[in-house]
Amino acid sequence: MKFLESYCNKLLKCEQTVSQSSEVAQFFMPKDRDLQPDFTKNSIMIMLSEDLPDGEGGGDGTHQHAGNITHPFVTQTYRCVAAYETKDTKNRPFKVAVDEKLDVLIKDPA
Asked: How far apart are CA 10 and CA 8, in angstroms?
């Protein structure tokens, strides 16, 4: 989200021919489905990690170490072929159902 916010801020600071173009206006216009209250029912929400330093995650604003996490990441979408249940790295329950789609962050080797 930080990268998207940075991109949008830079885009809006461009000269008027760019920042007020129809393409930029269209980029920021919500789609009909975005405004439907049930749009997120079958969606996957990606929550920011509490372990990222201030400004990069959903933490409480105190600086925390991110361990060996580095950027950049690539996102890959997978479809579950079988139900699966486990616990995440913070010992919280994690479940997926058959045919559920998951966006997985993968450390980019580049």
From this structure: 5
Question: Average pLDDT over the chain, rounded to whole?
Answer: 71
Among 82, 45, 49, which residue's Cα sits nearest to residue 68?
A: 49
Residue 48 in contact with residue 57, Cβ under 8 Å?
A: yes
- The DSSP secondary structure of 33-57, one letter per residue, reads GGG-TTTTTTPPP-PPPTTSPTTSS
Amino acid, single-letter form, for residue 32:
D
pTM, rounded to two decimals: 0.32
Kind plus residue range of the DSSP H or E element containing 95: strand 93-96
Two tokens at 58?
């959903």
